[in-house]
Structure formats: C-alpha cells, structure tokens
Amino acid sequence: MTARKYPRRGLRRGIVIISLVAGVTVIGFGGYTIVRSQDNTVTSEASSTETVSISERATVSTGTLTLTLDAAGSLSPAASETLSFGASAPVTEVLVQVGDTVQAGDVLSRLETTDADARIRLAELQLAQAQASLDALLAPPTQIAIDLAEANVTLAQAQLYSASLSGTTSDADVEIARLQEELARNSLWQAQLRRDQSVAQDIYRSGELTWVESQAYDQSVNNAADNVTLAETNYEETLNPTTSSSSLVSASASVENAQAQLDSLLAGATADEIRQAEIKVEQAQLSLDSTRETLENYVLVAPFAGVIAEQALIVGVNPPATGAITLLDTSQYTIDLSIAEADVVNVSEAQAVTVDVQAFSGASINGTITHLADVPTQSSQLVTYDAEVLLNATDSVTLRPGMSATATVILKQLNDVLLIPNRFISTDSATGENIVTVENADGTYTSIPVTIGERSTDSSEITSGLEAGQTIVIIAREVDAATGTQGGLGLGGLLGGAGGGQPPSGFQPPSGGFQPGNGGGGFPGGGG
Q1: How many structural domains is the chain composed of?
Q2: Is the per-residue pLDDT at 206 higher than 50?
Q3: Is the pTM of this model over 0.90?
Q4: Do 158 and 208 belong together in one domain?
Q5: Residues 369, 325: contact at Cβ < 8 Å?
Q6: Are 31 and 11 in contact (CB under 8 A)?
C-alpha cells in the first residue's frame, strides 16, 4: 500500500459526483475530494473553512517491550500442616489458641505420660541388671571366692587320700563323707535357685528364653547334681569298706572337679561369655532409648514458625486421631496457576512474576515460579499445566489466605526497540497491511504501511515503516470551522464511525476501502 495524504485545509465543497475515467475514481461529498489513482495514492483537500480533528498524538520512540502472560489464582500459605499426637492419652496442657503466633520448636500441647514413664523405668532396670552381670564377669575374683575354691580342692584331695587307704575307714572318714554329701546337696540347691532366678529375669526382660541360655543354666545344675551323686557314692563306700575301689574313683573325680572350678575362677570369664553379656547390655540400652523416644508422641511441637489456624484440644480429654492443631506459615504465600499448553513453552521455573492482589490494587508484589508440572491436567479438550508461584516477602500490605490475585508472567523483554501504542495501528481492508497515520512537517497527514514485530497488550514493536521522533496521530473527524458541523466525507462519516455524519442514501465508499481503527475514530490509523 502506498502513502495516503490528508491536508489540513483547502478542501472544496461540492455536490456528489461519481465517475470512472481511465481507472481513476473521483468522489466528492460534503467538502471532501478524495482521489484514488491507479497507483493507490490517496490525497484529500479541504476548504479553508474546514479543519482536520486530531483525537490523539504520539511520538515514535525506542523503549523496552515486555511480553507477559496473565493467570488468575488465590493466595495460599507457603506451608500449612495439620498436627496430630502419636499417642493417645488425656490432654494435660494446651499452650496456644487460634490466632497465636508461634516459632519453630515451640511446645503447643502435652499429654499425660504415666504409662510411658512406667515403661521407661522398667527399661532402665533391665539395663542396670545387664550391666551388673557384665561388670561381674569383667571383675577379678574376690579373695573369699578363691579361698573357698582352694578349700574344696584340699578337701577333695583329702577324700582321695582317705579312699586310697586299704580296707578300713575311721569314724572321721565317715563323718567327712557325710559332710561332703551334705555340702554337695547344698550346692545343688543353690545352683537350682540361681537358675530359676535367672530364667525368670530373662523371661521378664525379653519375653522368652533361648536354647543356648537354657543349656547354660541347666549345665550348672547338672554339674551340681553329679557332685551330689559322687558324694552319695563316696559316703556309702565309706560306710562299707568293701566298696573301696568305687570310693577311690569318686574321690578322684571330686579332686578333678574342684581343681577345674578353681582354675576357672582364677582364669576369669571367657571372651564368648563377655561378648554375650555385652550384647545383653546393648539390647537393654536400645530398648531404653526406644522407650524414651516414645515420649515425643506425647508432646506437640511447632515444626515451623507460623500462626495457629485451628485447635481441637480439650484438657482431660484424649485428642482426636487427626487434626489436633493446624499451623499456617503466613510469612510467604504461593499462587497455584493453570498454564495453557500453548503458553507453557514460554514458561520455566525461576521465571519472574508480578502479582496483582485484588484487595490491594496497585501494590507492588513480585514472585518467582518455583514449580512447573511436567504432567498436564486435562479437562475435556482443555490441557493445562500446574505452576506454583512463590511471592516475595512484603511489608507494604498484609496478605491473607484465599485472597484473589492475578499473576503476570514476564515471558520476554525486548530492549531498545521502536515502539508505538497499539491504538495508533489500523488495518487496510483491501491489502491487509497494518497502517499508521503520520503528521508531516507541512501539516498534512499520511497513512503509511508498517511492519510489526512483537506485540504486547498495549504496545507494538515496529520493525519497518517508522523512525524514532516521528509524530503519529489518530484522526477523529472533519469539522466545518464556519458552521461547526461535521464534514460529510470524514472517514467516520464514510464508515458510520463515531466521528462524522452519515453519507447520503446509496453512497458507496471507494473500492478497496479502509478498515477503521478499534477506537472508533473512523480514520485509517484511528484506533482508540
């Protein structure tokens, strides 16, 4: 499309004349003469009594064009958690109420811990018992124990010597044999008693008795029973000298047994015995630690700083299984957005966002996209992607959960580009070209085609057709300076726009007529 010129003054009045001569169309009406030649050059002349009315002027300049995407949502706290107890017991303390502000680690409520305290005390006793057993194994034998073991060896040796005598026994031998039998029986009873006590303690502590432990306890009893049998046999043989050979064998076995007990006492516990005792201590310690940790279930602690939104606790009553206290972190807010699939390609995490909260119009609030879903959400034929925007902290306004907001995502910024407002651009209906009306230095106006690059909601990048510093206009209507009436051939009049009167009945505009701007100005380039 070539330039169209519209002088301010010198338009001739005349009647309507429509003729076709050599491909040139001449239209005269209401003080206008518009000539469209074959090269599409359009000019107009106005009489001295008429002026061109300019709705708006602007200067072509360079600047930054920001491309954005808007999405609506509502504010949600950055963190929200419903807290519950891990145990069930009557509530003893409620330390917060709805609306209270708490810090991370603050105690919010407590439960009664009577049962937990009893379990902890039992675990402590079991640990003390296991440790005492280990200490006894590691400690050196006492002198009394050594003296007693040595006395048993001496006694057994004396019995062996007595048995080795031929044929006869004295009253002293008989008494010694009797005492030995009595001593053996006492040892058996003591072994049985120790076994029964140890078995009861192990069962109480761990709930069962292993086969290895059972065999160890029974072995000490069996040894004591064997000693009783030997002592009985020796006593009978002492009373009956005819059994001197059996008495000799029994006495010899007694010496070996007494010596073995003395050697074991002096050597101390074996490595296996010590390790088994250490394992029992470790098990008891783990049981105690685990029992103590259950106390955490009886206390409700704030996991982060925030505001108490709900609390459903009553002192003396067991807490609900879920939903004891609800805590909100109101220091920051997020907005959940749904991004259309056509726009999501221009959106990414860490992208800057400006937020307009409906309740605080004009407040400066910024944010960042912290999460963009990889999997879409589909409803019927609509495909969207969920995105989360984290708002920056602000002291200028007090935000609240649920407030309506619009997030504007900055998709692209073009710096130092030629910009004009969108309302100055219109479209030629014949050619489809974008046109802008330029004010010339001589006071005339020319509609010229322009090439548009990127466009935002209010401005467009001009890549060709204009230069910085040019003045562009929106022509509203033609006005008769003498009478104050509108000219009959203003473009608003031609196309029925808001700026001019109506053409006479049957009037047709020139072929390849003009597309008016969006603003209702009625002239090429007259968009509002």
Answers
A1: 3
A2: yes
A3: no
A4: yes
A5: no
A6: yes
